[in-house]
Design goal:
By secondary structure, the chain is an alpha/beta fold. 38% of the residues lie in helices and 15% in strands. The structure holds zinc ion (ZN) (2 copies).
């Protein structure tokens, strides 16, 4: 079983628990490492992210927890950047690169809110051609490594969140497949891990992690590698579906993210 999680949200953004409560549960579970990744500031939508003031408090709080657990549990202070985040001048232990919005005209259209929001944006900006919407999503994701220089890629195929069992669109559509292949290939070249993310399972939106098995196979075939995270917003789900991942994604190259951060620090 995986004994760490580097995608963790707290009360400073849209999570339910304090950093201290999360760390307490991680210690009970015998974790070796816990990384916090509060949602970075997006000035056009404050509903889920940390404002600059909240960011400062978050960093102080995580630092205190880090000291409190020294020698027992390695705590890391990271942030989940959105493609359209306003970058604040903080030196994080690591960052996640994610796409939660598409910038369409004057709109920042939310990808992960619900199916209707996606369909409305496809209607308004692409004349109802959902595949164009999906292409735009993967075009943006494909650019995440270059634009944000993150330490890993967040929920690569988030656009499929509401498509369990292909209920919204045909995931074998050639345009969809070509779009994710182009993005995945570009990101494999960046040499950073993709996450196998179980967060939507905890929130009841999906039964399987991101990315889909087809995408994971492709990434694997291109020499890409992975870390396992629960995109945790509630400490009761810190290891949500980790056993499912071990069973179904265990054949892929899953790396120790703590080692990667450690290596990077010694490089500098
Ligand atoms: Zn995210
Ligand atoms: Zn997240």
């Amino acid at each position: 079983m995986f004994k760490s999680n580097f995608h963790t949200h707290t009360i400073y953004c849209d999570g339910k628990n304090t950093p201290g409560e999360m760390a307490e549960r991680a210690a009970e579970l015998g974790f070796t490492a816990l990384g916090f990744s509060g949602h970075a500031y997006t000035d056009f939508d404050l509903s889920y992210c940390m404002t600059p003031e909240e960011t400062a408090k978050y960093i102080t709080d995580v630092q205190n927890v880090k000291e409190q657990y020294a020698g027992r549990l390695n705590i890391y202070c990271g942030t989940e950047l959105d493609y359209y985040s306003t970058l604040l001048p903080y030196d994080y232990d690591y960052t996640i690169g994610s796409v939660h919005y598409l910038h369409l005209g004057d709109d920042y259209a939310e990808v992960d809110h619900n199916a209707e929001t996606q369909m409305n944006a496809a209607e308004k900006h692409f004349g109802g051609d959902y595949m164009k919407y999906a292409e735009k999503y993967f075009e943006t994701v494909g650019d995440v490594a270059e634009k944000l220089r993150p330490d890993f890629i967040g929920h690569f195929d988030l656009v499929s969140k509401f498509n369990e069992g292909d209920c919204m669109f045909d995931s074998s559509d050639r345009r969809y497949v070509n779009a994710w292949k182009t993005a995945a290939e570009r990101l494999c070249n960046a040499g950073i891990p993709f996450e196998i993310n179980t967060g939507a399972i905890a929130r009841g939106a999906r039964k399987t992690p991101y990315p889909s098995p087809e995408i994971a196979d492709f990434i694997d075939s291109r020499g890409g590698f992975f870390i396992v995270t629960s995109d945790c917003h509630n400490r009761d789900y810190l290891t949500c579906a980790f056993d499912y991942v071990a069973e179904n994604y265990g054949r892929y190259n899953i790396v120790d993210f703590e080692e990667i951060i450690g290596r990077r620090k010694t490089d500098i």
